[in-house]
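Human: For the file, kindly provide a plain-text protein record giving the amino acid sequence and the backbone structure tokens, at your earliest convenience.
Assistant:
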Amino acid sequence: MSVPIMLHLAVFQFVPLWGWLMAFKDYKIGRSIWSAEWVGLEHFKTLLAHDQFLQALRNNFVMNSMQLVAGTFCAVALAVVLSELRSKWFVRIVQTMTYLPHFVSMVVVANIFVMLLSPDGGILNDLLMAMGLIDEPIFFLGQATWFWYLHTIILTWKGFGWGAIIYLATITGIDPSLYDAAHVDGASRWQRVKYIVIPCIIPTLVLLTILNIGSLLTGGFESQFLLGNVITAEYSEVISIVALRLGLNQGDFSFGTAVGIFNSLVSLTMVLIVNAIARRYQTNLF
């Protein structure tokens, strides 16, 4: 049964790795990779010396970190609240409404929020003006310093309902005798959550955090590309967009490949470091 999965992994994950050779050669479209001139680490030096590299690296790390923290907090909070509700039909309705955005394309989500936040007929601006909170429309997606926060809110709204499913499943698997013992001891609902639910979901929380750490640099392209613009480029442009602009638009495929290798190596290093820290302090965590 595992053969199809292993074949898929090999064909789409390991076989394409030979293309990493382009990062060490001066590859031009239409020529064979093997015949291209070997330039060593030249493209990596160009990447590290690029004037927009540190800015894109900062945007990558900050936006993905903000989204990871906000998304995890909202997912855990939603799972805990749903686990405490007694009305099953209400729980199902809330679950459906919260994880439905996960299945909506990022292109559709971006267009929805562009229309909602538009200064020209946007619902949010019309509502704020009707309430007398503002005198003229605000171009929300044109405020560069607001982009990180708007991006975090939009991505959290899109994904926290789906993320709550795993935590809710973990909470469902908690031994009911723990709740019974807490009830006999006179524990309140908040105390049951604090001393039973939270400690039981910490291992799942740590595992998912370790897995998501790898996307702090590689994660993010569609949302920044679709929601960002020239005005907010200083805060919205990430490494993947730099690779697209310089690698594909200008035909420098070797540079684009070097960007991909850099992202992969840094992400792998971060995952290994966080995993080592979690293993070292697992006694305190678990």
About this structure: The beta strands are 25-26, 37-38. The mean pLDDT is 85. The first strand starts at residue 25 and ends at 26. The chain is about 70% helix and 0% strand.
